[in-house]
Amino acid sequence: MYEKLTKLNIEFDETQKLLFDKYISMFLEYNKNVNLISKNDTSILFEKHIYDSLALNLFIQKYEKNEKKIKLLDIGTGGGFPSLPAAMYFKNINVFALDSVKKKLNFIDTIKQELEVQNINTINSRIEDLDGRFKNSFDIVTTRALAELRVILEYSLPFVKTGSYFIAYKSIKAQEELINAKRALQLLNTTLIDTIEYNLPIEENPKRYLLIFKKQKDIPSSYPRKNTLIKKKPL
């Protein structure tokens, strides 16, 4: 299955294959008791979730190919996507996986310890409650299957360094959500600089997009607003 990654310009060596084999086995076992992904998705764990996570390489090769040390925040990581596959593959990326559900983060911590993935850290918090010291401190912030774009822009951009990137993993509603997010982008001093298209190796709804945003200027410290207000009156 790993040969499918060549379309993402990734080629695993034998050590990486062994590492991901162990990870997949541990994931499927843990998922029997904790709902990391839908039971319907377990047969396509690699194709739908791991492959999708590693599509980050399409961005890295285009914008961060000098392999400098990168600090990445993954908001609403859930079962660890894209945070865990990203940390396992990109050794120069220090990943912070944030989620409000502790039992999901416990799995990430287990993988960190058992498979010695030292460049990942977990944060048990809701994004709107995240300590203010994290604001304006990440080179990359990612979200995947979290919320509508204009909502996740407000959650995410306060934590992106000015001049750095927010990456939204999106599927069929990407263009519609971009239209609705125009006002949010203006208020948050951010522009869409690229849309990277790719296909998952699945039959149903394979089209995916990485929406690449660049934070052009500092934004007001009042963002993100309280969760109830964001949902009631999105930007």
Task: Sum up the structure in keywords.
235 residues; alpha/beta; Rossmann fold; seven-stranded mixed beta sheet; 7 strands; 35% helix
Describe the structure.
With 235 residues, the chain is of the alpha/beta class. It has a single domain, classed as Rossmann fold. Helix content is 35%, strand content 23%. A 7-stranded mixed sheet has the order 3-2-1-4-5-7-6, with helices on both faces. The mean pLDDT is 94.
Average residue pLDDT: 94
Our measurement of the CA-to-CA distance between the termini, rounded to an integer number of angstroms, reads 42 Å
Corresponding CATH superfamily:
Vaccinia Virus protein VP39
Radius of gyration: 17 Å
What is the third-level CATH name, the topology?
Answer: Rossmann fold
β-strand number: 7
CATH architecture: 3-Layer(aba) Sandwich
Helix content: 25-40%
Uncertain runs are none
CATH class: Alpha Beta
Q: What does the main sheet amount to?
A: 7 strands, mixed
Helix and strand pattern: HHHEHEHEEHEHHEEH
Q: What proportion of the residues form beta strands (DSSP E)?
A: 15-25%
The tally of helices reads 9
* Total individual domains: 1
Q: Structural class per helix/strand content?
A: alpha/beta
Bulk shape: globular
Q: Order the strands across the largest sheet as they lie in space.
A: 3-2-1-4-5-7-6
